[in-house]
Amino acid sequence: MKNVLKNSAVLLLATGLLAGCATNKPQPKAAAPANQAQVSAATQAIADAQSVISGAQSPCTDTGNAADLLNQAQAAQASDPVKAQQLAGQAKQVASDSTNNCYLAKAKGLQTQVQGFKNLSADQQSRLAQAGQDISNNQGKPAYDLLAALVAELQAAHMTYDVAKGDSLWRIAGKSDVYGNPYQWPLIYKANVDKIKHADLIYPKQSFDVVKNPTQADSDAAVNYAKHRGAWRGHKADKKDKKFASGN
Q1: Most Cβ neighbours (<10 Å): which of 11, 214, 218, 236?
Q2: DSSP 201
Q3: What tens digit of pLDDT does each residue of 219-231 get?
């Protein structure tokens, strides 16, 4: 009888120890709930990234993999707002860098184009210099906007010249308010070939369109033609003039 009681006591003790061990086993900690500040920060970061991505406009709409990063941020927003904020920040940076690099590349192309025009005014030269500074400072969009407007302005710049008695294309081109170089007369001829039958014969009261800012290439071609055209008399160069005007 004593042995039975002894064995029962041992069994109960062992069972209690086992139960105690099971009860005292460490439990995994639950993730700390996100506080309101983290949630708000993630929400704002996602909104900022979305604004940059959706704000990309032609001609620079490529935002790299920013959209994928934003999708990941939105997926993590509820469960891990800290991670969501980090991903949204990356998305915003990638989008900003991608569009800025695009604008920088296009601005540099426009800068070269503007540098190819002649007769820029002091204001136009100042804007060209400012755009160059923007490019140096890695500011693609401001440089692009400035140069795109300047190129459009230069391409559209024309003036009307009314022929007076005693004028010739040579004399008109040499005027300081026109080209200041008589050898650029072929530019006037080319722009008004429909009004001029013979390049060496124009009449008072005719109105000619004058391109204010010819490109350097056009100006050089005109000067070269003027210097090698040959005799003016007898309209011997008419065919050559027409060929020059047609660009052949």
Answers
A1: 214
A2: B
A3: 999 999 999 887 6
